[in-house]
Amino acid sequence: MVSLVNEVPRPRVPARLPLGRWLRERTAGLVALALVIGAGAGVGAVVFRWLITAFTRLFSGHADYSAAGRAAHPWFPALGPWFLLLAPVVAGLVYGPLVQKFAPEARGHGVPEVMFAVAERGGRIPAQVSAVKALASALTIGSGGSVGREGPIVQIGSALGSTLGRVARLPEPRLRVLVACGAAGGIAATFNAPLAGPFFAMELILRDFAAESFGAVVLASVTASVVGRAVFGNTPFLDLPAFSLASPLEYLLFVVLGLVVGACGVAFTRVLYLVEDVCDRLWRGPEWLRPAVGGVVLGGLLLVLPQMYGVGYPVLQNAVEGRYALAFLLVLLVGKVLATSLTIGIGGSGGVFAPSLFIGAMAGTAFGIVVHACLPSVTASPGVYGLIGMGAAFAGAARAPITAVIVLFELTGQYTVILPMLTAIVIATACSRALSRDTIYTLKLRRRGVDLDRSPAARRLGGRTVAGVVEPLPQPLGAAVPLAAAAHALAVSGHGVLPVTAGGEYQGCVTAHAVAEAIASDHEGTAGDLVELPPEVTRETSLADAVQALADAPGTGLPVLGPGRELTGWLTHQAVLTGLSE
């Protein structure tokens, strides 16, 4: 005899998501991708710095020729310093065709291209950009190009993040976050700056500080920093002596310093694009040959001022430590502006972050020498002004004050001057905003017709206005119409909202929701009692502003008003979509 035993039902175990859906839909998936991208960006930064060192030794025979003082190349001693004329030419013959054939977007300083990809292309960056940008920028810097490595590493890391995100088929919002993760990881590993990386990515690349995005970007930055510190060690990027202030009165001088160096940052931006325009007008040959031919001019500049070779951090450190006279500091300032502008103008590849720090250090130290000579008892050493000038120049050029403060602190480890640093950077940012509409990054995009300060809708809708999508006006309600009649009119209109007039004059709108609530509460009144004033839209209103007004409106449509606030038409989301699809 078999006894039947009641089986206890087992709890249902939720089905596991496929890996692709898990990556696309779960926060844990985003975290996993951020960690992978951070590690990849860290490795990319290590390889990129190694490439720069290798090419610098190949082309100059020194670890950093900017501090070598016109020394001859040890492999070609008979040439003396004249090898400087050949190095940029030879390198240009290599990276010019490489960039032209495989990744034209790798030309230039890199960050604007990433900003454009995030704002206009949903974060999509071609996979080959990482390799091409690394080689082209390393060749440019190693052969004497006076540019930095922040732009290249941002583009390298961003391309890695974009590629991994597209392989996982992530939606555009998450793909943009992964691009920012790559940028943050690259900055963090290259400069040993785990805080500056996330703020650079959020303030300049994403231009947004959403919580989920920030968490992913921070994780990528931390992971990349661990990789970078494992290879490069955990020391500040610049080894400077400890600085301190001499008097509270110096804060007034730091305000002036912010104005002066902020203006220098704006001037650097103007000269950079002026030289690029001049190079564009003068060059009539194939683009792949432009870096080599322009390299002759760059080599001549390096022959006159070899301190402009490469990134130039040893020269920057010497300046802040007070090893240069006032006149030579000014020569170095002007020389760096011209050398960086020429490197970019001839088609070189490299960043403008390090040059802006260099320019700020020269301008700030020169300013410090002058004020210290005039007010020796109340001013600190000129190096303090040079250190603070570095952040002020970047703030003036890039208009990213949060990043400027944090990156300068992490690069130098100097916390004692944080208050004057904040003062000068805020003043420099305000000065830059007063003198120029664009930053050194956004100006490149505006010249292409892309305005990042406008909303995404405004950029996509261009200059179109409401006049092209306006619909016929539905029958308005009189202000004295009873609520029952108003409810019927709203029900048959299909709009859920209708305009209200009194004596032929527009009063506002009444919604079906408001009428239904009034009737349910036994309110006896008229349509005029429930009038709301929605955002006003005219035929001249841009479609971008009209879409925002529709989003803020209480109903599903908006009246279109004439010059005298008379009713001339009706606007709905459907009308906008229909107009855009035509």
Describe this protein's structure:
The chain is mainly alpha-helical and 582 residues long. It contains 23 helices and six strands. The protein has a three-stranded mixed sheet with strand order 1-2-3. Helix 10 (250-282) packs across helix 14 (353-374). The radius of gyration is 30 Å and the shape is elongated. The model is unreliable at 1-5 (pLDDT under 50).
* H and E string: HHHHHHHHHHHHHHHHHHHEHEEHEHEEH
Number of helices: 23
Point out poorly predicted stretches: 1-5
Distance between the termini: 79 Å
Element layout with pairings:
Elements: H1 19-25, H2 27-60, H3 87-102, H4 111-120, H5 129-142, H6 150-167, H7 172-191, H8 196-206, H9 211-232, H10 250-282, H11 290-304, H12 313-320, H13 326-345, H14 353-374, H15 382-398, H16 401-412, H17 418-435, H18 442-446, H19 456-461, E1 477-478, H20 483-493, E2 497-502, E3 505-511, H21 512-520, E4 537-538, H22 543-552, E5 557-561, E6 567-572, H23 573-581
Parallel strand pairs: 1-2, 4-5
Antiparallel strand pairs: 2-3, 5-6
Helix pairs in contact: 1-2, 2-5, 2-6, 2-7, 2-9, 3-5, 3-11, 5-6, 6-7, 7-8, 7-9, 8-9, 8-16, 10-13, 10-14, 10-15, 10-17, 11-13, 12-14, 13-14, 14-15, 15-16, 15-17, 16-17, 20-21
